[in-house]
What does this fold into?
Amino acid sequence: MAPDASGGLRNPSTAIKSKHALKKGPWTTSEDMILVEYVKKHGEGNWNAVQRNSGLMRCGKSCRLRWANHLRPNLKKGAFSAEEEKLIVELHAKLGNKWARMAAQLPGRTDNEIKNYWNTRLKRRQRAGLPVYPEEVAQQEKQLQLNSSSSVLASSHRPNQTQLNFYETFNSQQKIAPPQNQPNTPYINQQLKLYRANNGSLALSLATSNSSFTPSVLPAAPFFNQGLSNPLPIPSLLQYNSLNYGINAGPEIGVVGLPSIQSPMQGAVTPAASSSDFVMGATSSDGAEDQYDVETDFSRCNNSGLLEDLFGESQALACPEKQEDPFVAAAGNVHEETAAFEFGQGNASSDNNYEGPETKAPGEAIAPMDDDLMNLLDNFPLSVPIPDWDEGNGSESPVLTNGTNGTIENQPDASQQNPVAASTGTANQDWNFGSCLWNNMPSIY
DNA sequence: AATTGGGGCAACCGCGTGTGC
DNA sequence: GGCACACGCGGTTGCCCCAAT
It folds into this structure.
C-alpha cells in the first residue's frame, strides 16, 4: 500500500500537524455535531465555508463527504437487502461503475456504500469462480439488447473478413441537432470508429454525415458523461455484450498504446504521421507471460473533454453538402461500416434519451474534417494493454473489446468473451468489470 | 493465545465539470 | 477567454474487526 502522501495524516494520532493544518482521518462525534449544527443552520453546500465559520478543522471536501455518507438524514444504515442487492447488480450491468447514478436509484444509500459493496462482492465472486453477474441478469439483459439490435445487425454491411481482423473496435455515433434558428437543417451524424486492418495497424476515424432524424427508444443507454452539455451517447454494456462485439486482437498486438490522460502508457505508440490518419502500430507484447492488459481508460477520456472537443469541432466543421469520407483508414483495407448504431444527442438529464438503432446506407453523406480535427484525433487517448487474466482462458489471442458496438471477428465462441454471460473465475482482480463498459473501453474478456 | 488474512467500511486523492468574476 | 473556486465522481488506501489457523 502506498504511503499516505500527506505524510501519515491518515493516522489519527498524527492527524493534526499544526494549529492551521486541516485534520484528516476519522471523524469524532464532536466534529459530527459541529457539522450537523452547521448544516442545520446554513444548509448544504458551500462546504469550504464550514471550516471558516464553524471552526471545524476539516476541508470542505471532507465535510461534504462526511455529511453525504454519514450525517445527512434519511440515510439507510446496515446491510443491503436482497432487493437492493439485486438492483445493484442490475444497475451495474447497465451503468457500470457509475456509483452516484446507482445511488440515485437506491434511496438512503450512498455511492460509497454501493461502491464498497460492489468491490467486495466482485472480489468474493471472482475468488469463488462465480460469474460477476447472475445468469438471470445476463440473460435478461442479453435478450433486451438482442431485441433492440437485431434489426441493425440484419442490415449491417459487414466488412470483408479477409480485410479486417476486427472491426468497429470503437464505434460511437451521436446526432447533433440543427441550430434552433435553422430548424430545417439536417441532423448531423457523427461517428467515431477504430479499425484494425489485417496488417495489424489500427486506424481511428471520425466521420460526420447528415441524415433524417427518426427518434426511437432503446433501453439502458449509459452515456459517456452525463455532465456533458452535449453528451456523447454511449451504447450500453449490454448492447455490446449481447452482440458479442469485440476485437480479436491477435498476440501481435499484445500491447497497443496511445497516450492515456490518466494512465501511464503501457505500450509503444506509433502516432500517425499524417494528421488525417490515426494509426497505432501494432507492437509486440511480452510474450513470456502473455501479460496482456487492456485499458483504454475512456472514463478519463470522456472527462478530459477531448471527445467533447472532438465532436464539438466536428459539429462546427460538418458540412452537409460535401460527401466525402474524411478519413482514410491508413491501414489499408478498411471497410467503412455504415450500419452502426446511431445515438441521438443525449439529454444530460436522461440516460435513455437517445435514438437508434437505425441503419445508414453505404456511402451516406459524410462531411470532411480539417486538419485541426485530425490533430485532435492524433491526441485521442487510447491504450490497449492486455490483461493477464486472459491467460486463464487458454487463449493466445486476447480479445480486445469495447463498450460500444464493436464487432468480434474470428471469434469461434464469442460467449466466452462475454462477461455477463460467461464471467469466470479466471479473471483476476485486475479485471474491473466496469472496464468492459464504453466509458472504460476497450478491455479484454 | 498469537498470528494471519480477508471483509467491511471510512476517508482521502486526483481529476473533471460547472459557475461566477 | 482565463482564472479561481466549489462541487461531484470514481478510484484507492488505511484501519478495524473477526474468523481461521
In short: The CA atoms of residues 91 and 102 of chain A lie 6 Å apart. Residues 135-154 of chain A form the longest helix (20 residues).
